[in-house]
């Protein structure tokens, strides 16, 4: 089943939530390093949708995560 993942982006971390089966589930923080974002990306599924906050470094986050979804 498709999940919708929301990410509130800050300078050093992103706060992540999952919307799945009609429920919102906090998923904690992800460091804003390429290594941490790639690790998070590996947990994503091709049918997932990721919604990220439009902020200064959102394009960099998008570039790292887009190959995983």
From TrEMBL:
Taxonomic superkingdom: Bacteria
> What protein is this chain from?
IS110 family transposase
Record organism: Bradyrhizobium hipponense
Lineage of this protein's species? Bacteria, Pseudomonadati, Pseudomonadota, Alphaproteobacteria, Hyphomicrobiales
